[in-house]
Amino acid sequence: MTVRVRGYALPHGEYVDLYADGDRWTTDPVRGAELASGWLLPGLVDAHTHPGAEKPGDPLDEQLLRSHLNQHVDAGVTAVRSPGLAGEPPDWFGTDPDLPRAWHAGPWLAQHGQFFDGWGRRADHAALPAIAAAQAARTGWAKIIADWSVGDDPVPVEVLTAVVDAVHAVGGRVAVHTQHALGGVAAVTAGVDSVEHGMCLDPGLLTRMAEQGTALTPTLSAFQSMLPTVHSRPDSPVKEWLLGGASVHGDLVAAASEAGVRVLAGTDSVPHGRVLDEVRALAGAGMRPHDAIGAASWEARAYLGLGGLELGAPADAVVYREDPRLDLDQLAHPVAVILRGRRVR
How many angstroms separate the CA atoms of 314 and 308, rounded? Predict the structure, then answer.
């Protein structure tokens, strides 16, 4: 059945009246279209999620992958970016009409001796640029683990720079996991496309990130949720590092937004479908509610090359009874979820 959405559309707040013509929005009326009206968002995005595995090291499970993606749709998420998966996804990943659009970077790429056992691919520095470029040529993204635990050496800046050059040469983009200051310096200096987590990132790098278009996906809610557990651990260098970085991570997010860095909402957590937790965390850190919602909607969609509620754009939308900028809890209660021009919830 054809879908029609009508109401005040964010981010601009102007009144729109759109019909889905297949997977594209149009203003041409369609007789008998099912109407959903209210406050409209152009589809939510979880920009950092790893569906298909329950815990680190588990193999990719297709049944679990479908379940996790359904949880995202239930929350109004119409697109996901998976910077790292437990295995190569099935052909229906990102194309199934009932599940979110999807971008992924294949397996994580890490140095020998780092990252979770059973996950990702280890590579020598000399081989890393070619491996990353081959991955990005297939899926559009490569994900590098730039640093890992306390005392580990990060990927050198010259190696990350070579990775960026090789991936960009094939038209791809590079996402980098970093949670240490030196890894953050290397990632930003190399000009990566997105910094994932960014804990312990030097705030002095934020201006450069904004200028070169490096996005930040802070996964703030995941850090906040782990803090009570970290506090209860015995004293150790790892505890000191986690507490020192996670406790001020919200301040970094607020400073990044103020500096003009594109902040993306990503959950990096189980259960899936909890992007609202990240929006709340971003707003609680000091981002304007408008910008916190944008990080999970129009800003993330623009970053992935998706349009909003406009003529010719992909026909995704989430409908709410009230303006979610005035009450973030509205995000937990969508009236309708429209995906690829179909009402799926």
Answer: 7
Helix (H, G, I), strand (E, B) or coil at 81: strand
Alpha helices for 23-173 (secondary structure H): 62-74, 128-139, 157-169
Whether the upstream peptide bond of residue 271 has omega within 30° of 0, thus cis, is yes
pLDDT in tens, the chain (345 residues): 799 999 999 999 999 999 999 999 999 998 899 999 999 999 999 999 999 999 999 999 999 999 999 999 999 999 999 999 999 999 999 999 999 999 999 999 999 999 999 999 999 999 999 999 999 999 999 999 999 999 999 999 999 999 999 999 999 999 999 999 999 999 999 999 999 999 999 999 999 999 999 999 999 999 999 999 999 999 999 999 999 999 999 999 999 999 999 999 999 988 999 999 999 999 999 999 999 999 999 999 999 999 999 999 999 999 999 999 999 999 999 999 999 999 999
| Tokens (6 digits) for 117 | 């056992």
- The CATH number covering residue 317 comes to 2.30.40.10
Contact of 110 with 120, CB cutoff 8 Å: yes
The rounded distance, in Å, linking the Cα atoms of 339 and 20 is 10
Q: How many CB atoms lie within 10 A of CB 271?
A: 9
Question: In this structure, what CATH number is given to the domain that contains residue 138?
Answer: 3.20.20.140
* 214 and 334, same domain (yes or no): no
Instruction: Please count the structural domains in the chain.
Output: 2
Full domain range(s) for residue 138: 44-305
Instruction: Give DSSP secondary structure letters for 269-299.
Output: -SSSS-HHHHHHHHHHHT--HHHHHHHTTHH
Q: C-alpha distances in angstroms, 331 versus 39, 77, 271, 337?
A: 11, 11, 17, 11
